[in-house]
Design goal:
CATH topology of the largest domain: Rossmann fold
Helix content: 40-55%
Shape: elongated
Distance between the termini: 24 Å
Strand content: 15-25%
CATH architecture of the largest domain: 3-Layer(aba) Sandwich
Low-confidence stretches: none
Structural class: alpha/beta
Order of helices and strands: EHEEHHEHHEHEHEHEHEHEHEHEHEHHH
Largest sheet: 7 strands, parallel
Number of domains: 2
Strand order of the largest sheet: 3-2-1-4-5-6-7
Oligomer: single chain
Mean pLDDT: 93
CATH class of the largest domain: Alpha Beta
Number of helices: 16
CATH superfamily of the largest domain: Glycogen Phosphorylase B
């Protein structure tokens, strides 16, 4: 039996790679009091070098490779793991995390928390009957639920029929010191060696997005809207588009820029560890997703002092103040996005006003310290009951 008296939390996630939820877990682990909490990360599938962002020395990251061993062998491996680790809390997240709940209970874990951080790619609108049923069947084994948005909270209460008393909403937080406006955007553009010179030539307004290049992010809507802007004579040669991230849709999206004749105005950066610097290159941030929880990238963009144009889905409507810190537009509606982008791109005064208020909101309402404190209080209160 270990003599370590810290609260041991096992975080169960699908995989530890670049992503908003994964970034939130890393921030949580790095900022929780090390003398009070111990952490282990269990990946249903695998992890990448993103694990190196964990700064705490004694955090073990374990990959179980469900797609290779099958779901029943996975559950057996989870049972053995929980019996060995003897955690105080198992905190599973999203659909694949449900596989950990029964093995945890069977292994004697007395506190199981389940988090909902966004829609699954196979259930973008939360209507899949099988997924609702699986959540409902696991609910007697779950001690408490945490959601990142009110929309996900209402989904659990109304659709999965979880008692509202068992659900806590904890908003994501952002590091407002790391993500901050540049002293001079011109200096940043001159000093950032990786950016192609034609992307930042002249006084270009740079529209940017950050995230995995996958279908749920619907970057095709953004690229098509960007193409519409370049059809305006007075905007030709004044705009660039920067897409930060990597993913399975990369080639399709690059082909689309060629098809639309805008490839010279678009920079695909690939995966990057310098997101804060890349955000400082931008003038406007866009999130074109068809489904979202609470987007870390929106919070990072706001903290950087960028107006945000986002689709009115999921937690986006809780973050973006329409007309004040940016604009909310229809999902999968190219004209709606193009019109909002045109308003903010060609009006310097509006853009600067929205940017200033976005930064103020990030600092006052979405502090990373506040998020960490709420998680810590939730963990401790559940163990004390």
């Amino acid at each position: 039996m270990s003599s370590d008296k810290r609260i041991h939390i096992v975080h169960v996630i699908h995989h530890l790679v670049i992503g908003g939820m994964e970034n939130g877990i890393v921030n949580l682990i790095n900022r929780m009091p090390k003398e009070r909490f111990q952490h282990t990360v269990v990946c249903i599938e695998d992890y990448s070098n993103f694990r190196d962002r964990i700064q705490v020395d004694d955090v073990q990251v374990i990959a179980l490779h469900r797609s290779e061993i099958g779901v029943w062998q996975l559950r057996y491996q989870l049972f053995k793991l929980f019996r060995s680790l003897r955690p105080n809390i198992v905190h599973s997240r999203n659909m694949s995390g449900l596989d950990a709940i029964f093995p945890a209970r069977l292994a004697g874990v007395r506190c199981c928390i389940h988090g909902e951080h966004g829609r699954d790619v196979d259930d973008l609108h939360g209507t899949h009957y099988k997924f609702k049923l699986l959540r409902r069947l696991h609910s007697p084994l779950v001690s408490h639920y945490i959601t990142v948005s009110n929309e996900l909270r209402q989904y659990l209460v109304d659709d999965v029929q979880i008692s509202a008393k068992r659900v806590t909403q904890i908003l994501n937080g952002v590091d407002v010191d790391k993500f901050a406006p540049p002293q001079s955007i011109g200096d940043v553009r001159r000093q950032y060696d990786e950016v192609p010179s034609h992307i930042v030539s002249g006084q270009r307004v740079i529209i940017g997005a950050v995230g995995r290049l996958q279908k749920v992010k619907n970057y095709a809507q953004l690229i098509n809207a960007f193409s519409r802007l370049l059809e305006e004579d007075h905007l030709k040669g004044t705009l660039s588009l920067v897409l930060v991230g990597e993913g399975p849709e990369r080639q399709n999206l690059m082909d689309l820029t060629v098809e639309l004749g805008v490839s010279e105005n678009v920079w695909f950066t690939g995966a990057s560890s310098n997101v804060s610097e890349l955000l400082q290159l931008m003038n406007v941030f866009v999130l074109s997703s068809v489904a979202e929880g609470i987007s870390n990238t929106i919070l990072e963009a706001m903290a950087t002092g960028l107006p945000v144009v986002a689709t009115a889905v999921g937690g986006n409507v809780e973050l973006v103040r329409d007309g004040k810190t940016g604009f909310l537009v229809e999902s999968d509606h190219v004209d709606s996005m193009a019109q909002a982008l045109q308003r903010v791109c060609e009006n310097d005064e509006l853009r600067e006003k929205q940017a200033s208020l976005a930064r103020q909101c990030a600092v006052s309402e979405y502090s990373l310290d506040t998020m960490v404190a709420r998680y810590q209080n939730t963990y401790e209160s559940l163990l004390s009951n």
